[in-house]
Amino acid sequence: MTWEYAPAPESRDIANLKANYRMFLDGEFVEGAGEPLKTVNPATEEVLAEVSTASPADVDRAVKAAKRAQDRVWGRMPGAERAKYIFRVARMIAERARELAVLESLDNGKPIKESRDTDVPTAAAHFFYHAGWADKLDHAGFGPDPRPVGVAGQVIPWNFPLLMAAWKIAPALACGNTVVLKPAETTPLTALVLAEIIQQAELPPGVVNILPGAGDIGAELVNHPGVNKVAFTGSTEVGKIIQRSLAGTGKKLTLELGGKAANIVFDDAPIDQAVEGIVNGIFFNQGHVCCAGSRLLVQESVAEEVLDKLRKRVATLRIGDPLDKNTDVGAINSREQLAKIQELVASGEDEGAVRWTSPCPVPDKGFFFAPTVFANVSQAMRIAREEIFGPVLSVLTFRTPDEAVAKANNTPYGLSAGVWTEKGSRILLMADRLRAGVVWANTFNRFDPTAPFGGYQESGFGREGGRAGLEAYLDV
Amino acid sequence: MSDRVTVAKTYKLYLGGAFPRSESGRTYPVTDARGKFLANAAQASRKDLREAVGAARKGFGKWSGATAYNRGQVLYRVAEVLEGRREQFAAEVAASEGVPQKRAQSLVDTAIDRWVWYAGWTDKIATVLGAANPVAGPYFSFSVPEPTGVVGVLAPQRSSLLGLVSVLAPALAAGCAAVVVTSQNRPLPAITLSEVLATSDVPAGVVNLLTGHTAELAPWLATHADVNALDLTGAPPELRTDLERAAAGTVKRVLRTPAEEPDWTARPDIARLRAVLETKTVWHPMGA
């Protein structure tokens, strides 16, 4: 039977969208000296707002403001006092959750059910969790009275704009650092509303500075001599450039980079549950997830059954208006990203993989890409090796657990992995042998501020979340 | 004093559990602190280094797969054998570093004690750095530290044994395998240490010690894609930035090490263990 859905759009008025947004520097919203950027709704291609961007001189001012604030106020403040400011931010994010969710979906293109149920609440949770650390750092296992690093320069991606800002800012502040953060060029809006919250929460001027801009401003920021710690989330390619440019500076660095996660399904797995997990693993957030389960490894004996069920399930995914509460797959974040996905998909076809694309209707306007599954993929193909960062799944098969491990680990990345099996001992063995920072067993894409997240190998180094995540922001 | 002529030792590389000469056939003379000839050491080549990394990768599988208790026992065994060779090490350290015999003895004792300290960490570090994560949902989530893999070590140039032990033992205790470029001018205690390792049940390939020219070997270690972490303690200062830059090509973990060689007699903390450990987080749903 076919389900018909009436449209159920969330009202875009809730976003309180403004025509202009300004950068946040030393406690004030000011016009940046950079070329203003126009941020676009990827679902409609309309301009949402004009956003002022930073110039190199603005970066310098922001870093100096952050340094002043760190020296004079934030670094000296007792942890218990810092904590209360950070708690305030957590509460205010929760209070403005609806507004932030709608704004995020407008600017990023992700379905409202995801921004509403994942991005915004998890962002609030990150502040809440880290607030509590601020006066307990003595007990975090880094020795007595661990000191902050200083000024943190942070550059974040467009896939989880508010959530990544929270992942970066919350631990930095808890540990006594001050922050200059550059949101992604295509998704600056929620970070600037977060700046408003930070202002309303009366954090001392300069403790958090948010400077929109393109990659050149990110480079300016991470290379500024006043920055003591750099945190970057984004592509492995840019991560390497940053690591290279920081060589010899003594700056502390953490990188959360790309991935090509294996999601491994054994023949004894609960297949229906696994199919849900596979779908979540690759189609959550349009596949714009560094830890996406983009390589499905299915045990040969159940490969056909899994693929059949998977195609049936994927065909029911609704692609379209990100603000519609029934939308499963929203818009690709930008024209450039869409082109990249199309190029890699074409390479998959050229290299002989068998393409299946969901027949679901796709809007004529905006940047959309229908969920796609490639079968008969071999390890040498680009779609098995390169991060696509889109709703495209590559399916490979294996016969034995050893082969599954070998194939899963056959990548320079190592961010995440999934395992589906009913056998407990096998879960633990696989979890032990997979070289990845996060292993989800009989689930996928779970995140929590108490659970450290980060990669092995070329997926980066350092962790975010949990006790382990504090290390990045302490001089230890 | 006997008139007997002593049997002189040939100092070779320690690679994959064996003691080969450099494939290049090269050696270089090693002198004591006063310039008196001590021995010819093998001068490892790029090819030796690549073989060492290959051996370390193989050794890593075995070593990281062993139980923490077993690793602890093996490392403690190393300390036992070190203790048995106390006099030999003291003589070599005194000759290499030009310190009085008494001071050399004390450095050796500290090195042995340090080895014991790290040996005891193998089955405790996971308790200290791991966690059960109280996530907000019906899941069990836990985090465990895991060895990062193959660690490339440019050993301290001055402290020939204590410095070497202070950088090598934490990598081993963490479960990593190591490719070590020894102190260039003071390599003899390192080679003697490799004889200890070879007779202490440390699996072949887990430690590989190469003598030679640090500046020649370091770039190959920094760029090798199968090296996961890099310790630049003994890097020539003028090469340090270049080596860090090269390490970025494969996103290596570059240890935060001081520009000047530190005082190795100071009591260590667990920073060096942390630096070569990854945190792995595992999730599983809870339900009936």
TrEMBL record, chain A:
User: According to its UniProt record, which residues of this chain constitute the active site?
Assistant: 256
Q: Note one Pfam family from the annotation.
A: Aldedh
- Give GO MF terms, alphabetically: oxidoreductase activity, acting on the aldehyde or oxo group of donors, NAD or NADP as acceptor
Q: Which domain of life is it from?
A: Bacteria
Classification via InterPro entries: Ald_DH/histidinol_DH, Ald_DH_C, Ald_DH_CS_GLU, Ald_DH_N, Aldehyde_DH_dom
- Alphabetical UniProt keywords: Oxidoreductase
Aldehyde dehydrogenase domain: residues covered: 29-475
Question: Among its keywords, does the record have RNA-binding?
Answer: no
PANTHER family hit by this protein: ALDEHYDE DEHYDROGENASE-RELATED
Q: Which family does it belong to?
A: Belongs to the aldehyde dehydrogenase family.
According to UniProt, the name of this protein is Aldehyde dehydrogenase (NAD+)
Give the species. Answer: Actinokineospora iranica
Automatic annotation (TrEMBL), chain B:
Superkingdom assignment: Bacteria
A single GO molecular function, which one? oxidoreductase activity
Query: Which part of the chain is the Aldehyde dehydrogenase domain?
Result: 26-254
Q: Does the keyword Oxidoreductase apply?
A: yes
> Which terms are listed as keywords in the entry?
Oxidoreductase
State the PANTHER family in the record.
ALDEHYDE DEHYDROGENASE-RELATED
Q: Which named protein is this?
A: Aldehyde dehydrogenase family protein
Q: What is the lineage of its organism?
A: Bacteria, Bacillati, Actinomycetota, Actinomycetes, Pseudonocardiales
